[in-house]
Design goal:
elongated, Immunoglobulin-like, Cupredoxin, alpha+beta, transmembrane helix, binds dinuclear copper ion, membrane, transmembrane, six-stranded mixed sheet, 2 domains, 11 strands
Length: about 170
């Protein structure tokens, strides 16, 4: 079978692109730990307080064991509710010791939001009716910004909070 020169070039280009895409996908999945969650967990978006994790006193950072934390967050237009501090001010900053295993659980009562801890593998879509959760190990110290990366309305850019991972 005779292949024209251009056919060969395009074959190499096509197969090469396919291999490149698979390598990029594999790198994200196996080295960076980017995975979809295993199954959908549902919640009544009109009554999220009925779920223990999203009751006012359980929002924000909770230490559950040595080096184990849970962070419960209600994303809404246009805020991340991480509970309140002792003075009753909304918490916008949480601090976690380096090397901790952290389970993030997020839901929303209104529209689709994003939940991305920029610079880590925590990057979830938050949909009304579902609990998005991801467990990760915070291995690198530094300050990370939580951003909404799903356009959710005029205050979309105002949705943020910060996570500090300290030594
Ligand atoms: Cu919430 Cu964009």
């Amino acid at each position: 079978m005779h292949l024209h020169k251009y056919e060969k070039i395009w074959l190499v280009f096509g197969i090469g692109s396919l291999i490149a895409f698979l390598l990029i996908l594999g790198y994200g999945a196996f080295w960076q730990g980017t995975h979809p969650q295993s199954h959908g967990v549902t919640i009544d978006p009109n009554n999220i307080e009925a779920h223990e994790a999203f009751q006012e006193e359980n929002l924000g950072l909770t230490k559950v064991d040595d080096d184990k934390y849970i962070v419960n967050i209600v994303a809404s237009a246009f805020n991340y509710d991480l509970g309140k501090d002792e003075e009753g001010n909304p918490v916008k900053h949480i601090r976690i010791p380096k090397g901790s295993t952290v389970l993030f659980q997020v839901t929303t009562p209104d529209v689709v939001h994003g939940f991305n801890v920029a610079g880590t593998n925590v990057n979830m879509m938050v949909e009304p009716g579902y609990i998005s959760s991801l467990e990760t190990v915070m291995n690198k110290s530094g300050e990370y910004t939580i951003v909404c990366n799903e356009y959710c309305g005029v205050g979309h850019h105002l949705m943020y909070a910060t996570v500090e991972v300290y030594e």
